[in-house]
Amino acid sequence: MADSDIHRADIDQPLVQYGAEESRQIAQQFPANGLPLLPYITPPPVIYKVYNISNPVGLQIESQGGLMAVEDPRKALEDQKREYKEIQTDWSSDNDDEERRHREDRSERTSKGKRVDRVSRRIITRMEVLEEQGNWLEYDKFLETAIERHEGDHDILVRIVLEDVVAAYFREDFQGGYTSLHQADDLVQKVSDPAQQQAHRLYLKSALLRKQRRHAEAENINTLALQSLPHMKPGRDIASVWYNIAALKAQVLYECENSPDTANELYKEAVSAFENAIDHYESGLDAKDETCKNQLRRSHIRLAMVAVGCWYDGTSTGTNPGLIPKQDLQKAENSLEEVENNLWEGIPKRMRCSWYLAKSDLFRRRGKIQRATEMAEEALKIAKKAKGGFPSEVRFAEVRLGLLKRAGELNREETRVEEDAEDMAWLSPEESLAEETEITSLPSTKIPYTLRQPGDQRASKSGTVRKSPMVGRRHGHSQLFY
User: Fold this and answer.
1) Of these four, 244, 324, 406, 441, which has the most CB atoms within 10 Å of its CB?
2) Structural domains of the chain sorted by starting position, each given as residue range(s) with its CATH number in brackets
3) What is the pTM of this model?
4) What is the DSSP letter of 310?
């Protein structure tokens, strides 16, 4: 019975007859409870990848022993996308954290920059008002307080020190001006916008050199300042670079001997630079920088002075409007009207004085001597009443009044000669000539000045025409281009 069961259980194996000894040895391999002495370890099932060609959706069949599993490639792709998205999310999260830190840093810098600009503008505006008034006693007190209060904030302190260079310019305190420039040079290395402040320092140094008539050095500094323009914020500082370039061109034009071609080129460059300055000051004013307002006034007035040929040596007596092209006179009038109509409110005394002087020259160029005299007298009155005094404006006005007085005498003399000629028109030519000779030979009669025409000759005080030392100058010169 037992043999029959074994045969049925193992149908493919032939029956083997064991002897007693073999049976005993086999039986010893089993414990009393019938279990093997050693555990039977089942090997891992073999996995077969089977692709069903007839499957229209491309299912992948996985066989694990006797089990069959179906794997969808779309699900695998979604799993890959999910894993990629998780990786990207982690990477984006890291980037977001870094970007947030950058934004916070930028926000902090922007906030600090706005505070620096806001505080600096208030301080600079007050300093400018005192400078324009010539109130140096009050200015020195305010400067000391401002420096003491902001000594630890280099961004504000450097702006205060640089504005003090402007005060030194007005006071003609060159030693003090260069001392402030050296202090600013040390501070520039510690500020958040070194390129901007370095350019600021350069154009102020150019202004000091220009006032000392060190034109070549000032030109070199202006070249360096121009190279800094790409690193500067729009508005006041860029405008100031152009203003100083224009002022230097104008000063060289009116103080130096120049050929006609050079003089014409200098004039064009000065006008162009002043117009650039005006554009940038206007953009700064649009951006609510009130410190640009007075600089805008100054630029318009200086442009008018260049156009009408302001100078103050008083060596020329010409009043012929033909000396200045009509379009230049119109340019000057437009600039002065812009100040009068749109920028007059709150205009400082020094600037008002300069406006009257420019207006005086415009009237003089148009032959309106009486109106020109009234403007010059008003300018002189303002300059003399200023607390600290405006020495440059006083000199300008006094020389202008002297020139206008001579021009008025010339006009009266010309009028008298014309009237005498009309009175003698009824005489015969011989009698008229004899009468004219007698009149002009009288010692008490003033010999009229010869009007200087656009050339290289002018009349001397004795009435004789001589070679002019003004050859190449456009119309003269001025020291007022600050």
Assistant:
1) 244
2) 265-428+435-482 (1.25.40)
3) 0.64
4) -
